[in-house]
Specification:
Blueprint lengths: L2 H23 L10 H5 L2 H17 L3 H6 L6 H15 L6 E4 L2 E7 L6 E3 L1 H19 L7 H15 L1
Antiparallel strand pairs: 1-2, 2-3
Helix pairs in contact: 1-3, 5-6, 6-7
Length: about 160
């Protein structure tokens, strides 16, 4: 078994245990037998299935090709900028959605078809991709603080 397959297996096992734990925390004591259909169709199970699908799709992306792209062809800086812009839009009155006293959400859609989205989650993902892209792109100068690590730290500081 290769290291990537072992990592995939560990992630799947942790995700499965997390779904069971979250589902068991929402069960009422004394209801009788646990319903496996309720576990399989719960909201948490559907989110886990969507996460697995996203993970499998992401595993097929040509990462080496993305890392070689330069300038306007590389989508990673644009993804970081879009995620940062969406996160800043939560501060615009009327666009940001308040939940439990915090305005960190954007509402997409109208009426019953709307979903709330927390753009800071996309920003975290984009930041990891951007720092990894920067480290690969400037691996020859990473040993020098000002030209290697400092620009990545500046981007992380800006996002924070």
């Amino acid at each position: 078994m290769r290291a990537g397959q072992l990592l995939l297996l560990a992630v799947m096992a942790l995700l499965g245990m997390a779904v069971v734990m979250v589902h068991s925390a929402s069960l009422s004591v004394g209801e009788g037998e646990a319903d496996l259909r309720a576990l399989a169709t719960s909201r948490h199970s559907l989110y886990a299935a969507a996460a697995i699908a996203a993970m499998l799709i992401a595993s097929k992306l040509p990462i080496a090709h993305l890392m070689r792209l330069r300038g306007m062809l590389n989508p990673i800086p644009f993804l970081l900028l879009a995620a940062l812009t969406l996160t800043l839009l939560t501060r615009v009155p009327g666009l940001g959605h308040t939940a439990h006293g915090a305005t960190r959400w954007l509402r997409l859609g109208v009426g019953d078809l709307s979903i709330t989205f927390q753009p800071s989650e996309l920003l975290k993902f984009a930041l990891v991709l951007a720092v990894a892209w920067w480290c690969v792109r400037s691996r020859a100068v990473m040993h020098r603080f000002n030209h290697g690590l400092m620009p990545a730290l500046a981007v992380v500081g800006l996002v924070c």
